[in-house]
Amino acid sequence: MTSTAIPKYASAVILLRPDQAGDWRFFWAKRAEATPFLGGYHAFLGGRRDPEDSQVAVCHATDAEHAAQCACAAREVFEESGVLLAESRLTTTESRLAVRADLMAGRLTFAEVCARFAVTIDARRFIPAGRWVTPVGVPRRYDTTFFISQLDWQQEPHLWAEEMVDGQWVTPSEALAAWARGEVRLVPPTLHSVRSLFRWTSEAAAQQADFERLRFLFHDHPAAQGAPPEFIELAPGIVTFPVRTPTLPPATHTNCYVIGDRELVVIDPASPYSDEQARLDAYVTQLADQTGAAIREIWLTHHHPDHVGGAAHLSRRWNAPVAAHPLTAQLLGDEVCISRFLRDGDTVDVPAASTSVAYGVVPPAWPGWRLRAVFTPGHARGHLCFFEETTGILFSGDMVVGLGSVLIDPDEGDMADYLASLRRLLDLPVRLIAGGHGPALNEPRTVIHSYIAHRQQREASILAALREGKTTVPELVATVYAEMPAALHPLATRSVQSHLIKLLREGKVHRHANGSLKRI
Fold first, then answer.
1. Where is the Nudix hydrolase domain (predicted)?
2. For the whole prediction, is pTM greater than 0.90?
């Protein structure tokens, strides 16, 4: 699925209850790493709507759509946690978990569960808490209705481990602190929801269990009305701002990153399109109006047009200097004026000014940000990654991406350098990879090792094809990339040529005078 696909409907539920001390806690869990959507991220219970959800009776719903979303919410919570947010004959934990097992095994549908066990779903138990649409630039998109539901002490979540793990009842302040420390990863609706709960628990409204006030706070965000959020906060003071660019499919956007709260470093303002440049300008203007923020410097990972397309505009608009590797500056020429060279190991400290955990971008006593340039040639000769030492986030440009694959073009890059650069990244204490395209990636060491293994497998396939008698690049492409559509074979050809240059240099392949190839 591409990022231009129509989002699928989904529901999510924020379970709430006060602890013995009277402090409100909510339930969340970590999505299993193997799940195809946001594996490793912390989230509330919920998931995609099934067609049969519209067949489940829901009392006090405002219309059929509202009823289907509530039914979806009840079903997803039951599947993932064994909690049934409804009246029913399933009054014991054992009975609920046994029926949940039958449901997950396909022996029962949720509609059959409702009919057999007199399940009565009341829409009033699901307090609306906003509607969020997955941002552009990610491979799976959802249109999710969020609900708040108070859970009594008669039920306790028992997670279905294939989907959710490490469930916890936490206070909003505990959750925000964990996010700030980089211990949990959150998407925009989850982060906003936690901040809304933090605001609510800081008010008298929480002591009075005023859920109407909480409902208002949850809707107090431009993206809580169904418009995709324009940016994603990866960590305190680190924002992903996807912009539409003329990049290679399946990606349609390039990730621009904004680091800091008062002094800002902007990485890869990528879009050449005036409307996208205006969106980024508006975001920086908003920061300037709110906190007096200003762009200190613009950093470029490399010279490709889908990473530098808006650099000259942003530099002129905000009178901000641009920094890049000397080779990148040479390749850009007069296209972008480079004011300062960045070399391997260069660092910059970005001080923190804000102190508000609820409304600002950084928590109290935040040490600020320290960006280090890491020279990573391979995809491009002057390619740099930027490692943020406080949070452990690696801004990887086109070394590692969250969507699509990395092309090593022999005219602009080098396969041996690329593999060496990947291995160098393994030496960094990276906690999250923020690539040039697609969502951020958890489990960075696993991801980098998979990149290396993929290239090694391609190389082995090329050598095997040569052993079998293939002697030309077209023959190698047809064999090694047999699963790839023919329309993409020109890109595959460039990749094979890059591998061959490496293999010829290493003496593993010989090229005859007539141009034919042979494995040595």
1. 7-192
2. no
